[in-house]
Amino acid sequence: MEIWINPACSKCRSALTQLDAEGADYTVRRYLEDVPAPAEIRAVLDRLGLEPWDITRTQEAVAKELGLKTWARDATTRDQWIEALSAHPKLIQRPIITADDGTAVVARSQEAVQEAMKRGS
Q: Which InterPro entries match (predicted)?
């Protein structure tokens, strides 16, 4: 199991605390430092069953600078969204846990972390 985190994020710290309390085996990826390539983002989106706009933090300053709220959300702009997430990883919703069974979850709640742990065992 791998968890993408921003150490400054309270939801990420909470997820790590929960994983540790359960004795989960996981790897931490500080995605602001170890920025995912577009291909990695595509793979995680496939595992999540989501589109890039579904995991984009549209309230971030850079999102406003890029005008993301005005971008189309369809197949023609999908790659543009993915490139933006890779170029500006702060836009990626967090934490994301990739489970051992090939799935992933956006683990913003205790229930989502539990679900990831079930899939990871």
A: Arsenate_reductase, Arsenate_reductase-like, Thioredoxin-like_sf
